[in-house]
Design brief:
The complex is a heterodimer. By secondary structure, chain A is of the alpha+beta class. Chain A starts with a helix and ends with a helix. Chain A has five helices and five strands; from the N terminus they run αβαββαββαα. Chain A has helices at 2-12, 30-43, 76-85, 114-117, 123-145, and strands at residues 21-26, 47-53, 68-74, 95-102, 105-111. Chain A has a five-stranded antiparallel β-sheet. Chain B is of the alpha+beta class. Helices cover 45% and strands 10% of the residues of chain B. Chain B has 14 helices and five strands. The longest helix of chain B is centred in the first third of the chain and has 31 residues, at 5-35. The N and C termini of chain B lie far apart (93 Å). The chains are: A alpha+beta, B alpha+beta. At the A-B interface, strand 1, strand 2, strand 3, helix 3 and strand 4 of A face helix 1, helix 2, strand 1, strand 3 and helix 12 of B.
Chain lengths: 147, 348
């Protein structure tokens, strides 16, 4: 009985750790970091589909920066195929990385797919999650390491 | 030249020790950069996370406290736990943080401080609650953050947090009260006209705060909010726009899911997205957590499959779990309800 209760708790709240939110600080200025980010995305075989501004009205609300963007990217064939097989995942696609300035430095943010894994069982899809996680971490690391 | 055996052992041990130092120091800096600097800054100046390089903090924060904090995090208060780091890695990060101070780690005993909790409760209400909250729940928001001037005071830590309570010793609490923390609004008890016995009573009270650690875990929310529409794709999109505007959002853009990926004119036109925003809500969300870009902009996706139209969005309640921010969880609950209302109205 106790074992069952323990398993139930595990199922109800799978562990999400710090490593599941990818967040890096780049010492590059915002425009430089944005350039490196887009190049890193492209070099990883993805295509940037849109850079969305999130800063409209921020400074008028008293914020110190208006440099806040979300970069969407993906692979056309992959998105088409997933849209056929698992249409609900389109809510999470294209992939995205948020990027914003903090003083003279830049912070970039994305996430793993740990929060989705327990809801999907297809080995192909789980392999896609693995690949996206590796690629996103590699893209973020590249921006972080450029001085 | 022959080195006497005991001296040889000594030299060997010294070499090993210095190798360990060389191995630890740079590794600690690298690990800090990788796991901590995004929030706390490269030099520990603070940002989304609190400043770590303050003299008064490092003078009272023991290495045990820093290690336990890395392990436990602060549930619901942004600072995550790092269960995946090895003991050596945690030690290396702690060593790097310690390198910002000339002081060694304080060596506290583990014994409890004897004080009168009832008296401490009154002192807390009079001197501490205005910053730390009446229940010790701490100030709102994150640390310094990109959105606020650097000189602004940091948010008061949550003293009832189970991660904090499990990491801090009675002696460290008392040392913090006696010393205060220059560079933050935290004064010393002497500056408040209090005595050492008052600090003991405050510690006794702080140890009785309800950490809420016995709360039942909630079921994991579904990752996607979905509805099936009673209308065709075009009519559903029109309904959505009306529902969005009716809830004080502004429609930003309607586009194909494949836009920007497929050549113009070759996109799948039966998969579309509607972006919308409410700037007041956006700014409220940024004040709670500057990392909310992961949820932005608000978006609903429409997919036509085999004659039916599915309407879907991310479930903010599911994604919010990654952020370890209780305030954000509450905002995401509201956003979830709004998404549901909008989609229900547009599809029924």
């Amino acid at each position: 009985m106790r074992k069952f209760a323990f398993m139930l708790v595990l199922l109800m709240s799978p562990m999400l750790a710090a490593e599941d939110l990818y967040m890096v600080r780049s010492q590059l200025s915002f425009p430089e970091a944005m350039t490196v980010l887009q190049q890193a995305i492209s070099d990883s075989g993805y295509q940037v589909s849109r850079v969305q501004r999130v800063d409209i009205g921020l400074t008028t609300f008293g914020y110190k920066t208006d440099k806040y963007r979300v970069v969407f990217f993906g692979k056309l064939a992959e998105i088409r195929e997933l849209g056929d097989q698992q249409p609900d995942l389109l809510a999470y696609l294209p992939l995205k990385i948020a990027i914003f300035a903090e003083n003279e430095e830049t912070i970039l943010l994305s996430s793993s797919f740990a929060h989705l894994r327990s809801f999907y069982s297809s080995p192909e899809l789980l392999a896609s999650f693995d690949r996206w996680e590796t690629d996103i971490q590699s893209i973020l690391d590249r921006v972080r390491m450029v001085q | 030249m022959l080195i006497p055996y005991p001296a040889f052992i000594g030299v060997a041990l010294t070499m090993l020790a210095s190798q360990a130092v060389f191995a630890t120091a740079p590794q600690g800096a690298l690990l800090f950069e990788r796991h901590c600097a995004a929030c706390h800054g490269m030099e520990g100046d603070g940002g989304v996370g609190i400043p770590l390089n303050l003299n008064d903090f490092l003078a009272v924060a023991s290495d045990d406290y820093l290690r336990a904090t890395l392990r436990e995090g602060r549930p619901g208060r942004v600072m995550p736990a790092f269960p995946g780091l090895s003991d050596d890695e945690v030690k290396a990060i702690t060593g790097h943080i310690r390198s910002w101070s000339d002081d060694d780690s304080p060596d506290y005993g583990t014994g409890p401080i004897q004080g009168q909790a009832e008296r401490g409760e009154v002192l807390f209400a009079n001197h501490c609650a205005s910053c730390h909250g009446d229940r010790g729940q701490g100030g709102a928001g994150t640390g310094v953050t990109f959105s606020r001037p650097r000189g602004a005071p940091i948010e008061a830590p949550s003293l009832d947090n189970p991660g904090f309570q499990n990491s801090v010793s009675d002696a460290m609490l008392k040392a913090t009260l006696l010393r205060g923390r220059e560079g933050t609004p935290m004064p010393s008890v002497a500056a408040l006209g209090l005595q050492e016995q008052d600090a003991d009573d405050l510690v006794a009270h702080l140890r009785q705060l309800n950490t809420g650690s016995g709360a039942e875990p909630e079921p994991v929310p579904e990752p996607v909010i979905q509805f099936e529409s009673s209308y065709d794709l075009e009519q559903t999109m029109e309904n959505l726009k009306q529902a969005v505007v009716g809830r004080n959002f502004r429609v930003i853009r309607e586009q194909y899911v494949e836009q920007g990926l497929a050549a113009e004119g070759e996109e799948n036109t039966r998969r579309v997205m509607l972006y919308f925003c409410n700037f007041a809500l956006l700014n409220d969300a940024l004040a709670i957590d500057p990392r909310v870009g992961m949820f932005l902009p608000c978006r609903i996706t429409l997919v036509e499959t085999e004659g039916s139209v599915r309407v879907m969005s991310i479930n903010p309640k599911n994604l919010s779990r990654l952020f370890n921010n209780q305030q954000l969880d509450q905002a995401c609950q509201q956003m979830h309800d709004l998404y549901e209302e909008i989609m229900e109205e547009a599809t029924l």
